[in-house]
Amino acid sequence: xxxxxxxxxxxxxxxxxxxxxxxxxxxxxxxxxxxxxxxxxxxxxxxxxxxxxxxxxxxxxxxxxxxxxxxxxxxxxxxxxxxxxxxxxxxxxxxxxxxxxxxxxxxxxxxxxxxxxxxxxxxxxxxxxxxxxxxxxxxx
Length: 140
Description:
three-stranded antiparallel β-sheet; single chain; alpha+beta; 140 residues
């Protein structure tokens, strides 16, 4: 009689363990957390402005650490690699833009952690393709 109860307990324990280890879009598969802390979603911003985020322990890909990709308006293939918790955004046109950050492993595969905000840029410049030391095609 204890076998069915024991089996149910084993199945329940397995389900709980799987749920605790499973991915949930927040990088729980080893990628850790990722949260944009500034500016707030829906903010009006001038340029340049500093994007701040909490990504846990990140660093250059060649260090073996995770890093962050920053991209604008859904242009996932035009990203900038960021290895610290802040990034200066500049070179955007006036108007609404979506800024997305994704946490990546050292080999650039996604951890599953992602965050995004919408901002309204005021006093912005026309998008340019000049890059600075941070790289990227938007001048950010």
